[in-house]
Amino acid sequence: MKAVVHDGRGGVRVAEVPDAELLDPGDAVVRVRRAAVCGTDLHVLAHHDGLPAGTTLGHEFVGEVVAVGAAVSAHWVGDLVAGADFSACGTCWWCRRGHHWECPERRFFGTGTTFGPALAGAQAELVRVPFADATLQAVPSGVSADRAVFLGDTLATGYAAVRRTGAQPGDTVAVLGGGPVGQLCSLVAQACGAGVVLLVEPVEARRALAAQEGAVAVEPDRARAVLDGLTDGRGADAVVDAVGGRVGLDMAFGLVRRAGTVVSVGVPASTEWAMPVERAFVDELTVGFAVGNYLRDGAPVGALVRSGLVDPLALGPLTVGLDEAPEAYRAMIDRRTLKTLIAF
Predict the structure, then answer these.
(1) CA-CA-CA-CA dihedral for 112, 117, 118, 119, to nearest 10
(2) 124-161: per-residue pLDDT in tens?
(3) Are 58 and 154 contacting, i.e. CB atoms less than 8 angstroms apart?
(4) Considering Cα of 176, then 181, then 184, then 189, what sign does the dihedral take?
């Protein structure tokens, strides 16, 4: 089968690799209809120590089940499914509490050993899916493949971040970063009843998109002044950092109100951050981190799209064929598109 693989030098190529096949009774094999290129793909390529040459990339996919193991009971050959970006057993103590990312059996598709044990990715004609009953969910009726491919990671991440803030209807929510996750955080926050969403982004085209989709979009150096005007000087009730690392977290602390909440959902570019503990204590701040979890949140995420409350195609993704995948990566790196889909 054909797949997008790491070339060993931080780039990608399309290559022939062995067909995906069932290895365990809980596995399924999915024939991929749509895959997507994600910022996490770019991150692991830029820091590719855990990404051997020849690794099949990608973790966002939707497709048709073509084989199931003997232990699979929730899916059948022919089902149209969306996959989570990682697999988990679904039955351990962590999974039962909704913390699938902490599952000892967790495997992240297409990222080598960057986030744990390796699992071949989904930018391929076929993908093996461990723990298929937990990892796959049926595509909601009426939802196209182009929309469904966002469910398992990008939209699930935006949803997890907004829900983790505990934002209430009418709250002012600030979102830092106008990349795909930031844009979808903005849409989810609006769908969940935020009074105002302020999206902070230096790139004009990304601000324009956010404003078109209902946010108040501002450059970073104007964010505090605009926020003060919206909140009588209090600051945001909740801030979602979709940038990650020191830059995003420091900015978030500059925008959140007293007794407010900061949630970071961006993959951190740095390993450490000096948290202003005295400020956090005196102002009673809540600080948290979130990883998208489609295994837990598939039903509400799917409902947001099926109902039309959130349309991930607002991002205006570029769609290419499998053989054009290297160009898709270049378009993402050069910021010529927010998101690229690979059609099979």
Answers:
(1) -140
(2) 999 999 999 999 999 999 999 999 999 999 999 999 99
(3) no
(4) negative
Decide: helix, strand or coil at residue 299. helix
Q: CA angle, corner 246, sides to 198 and 282, nearest 5? A: 75
Q: Tokens in use for 123? A: 């930018």
Q: Which domain holds residue 44?
A: 2-139+311-343
pLDDT tens readout for residues 190-214: 999 999 999 999 999 999 999 999 9
Tally the domains of the chain.
2
CATH at residue 112: 3.90.180.10
Q: Which of 167, 212, 240, 176 is nearest to 311 (CA)?
A: 212
Structural element, H or E, at residue 158: helix 156-165
Q: Kindly report, residue by residue over 165-189, the tens digit of the pLDDT.
A: 999 999 999 999 999 999 999 999 9
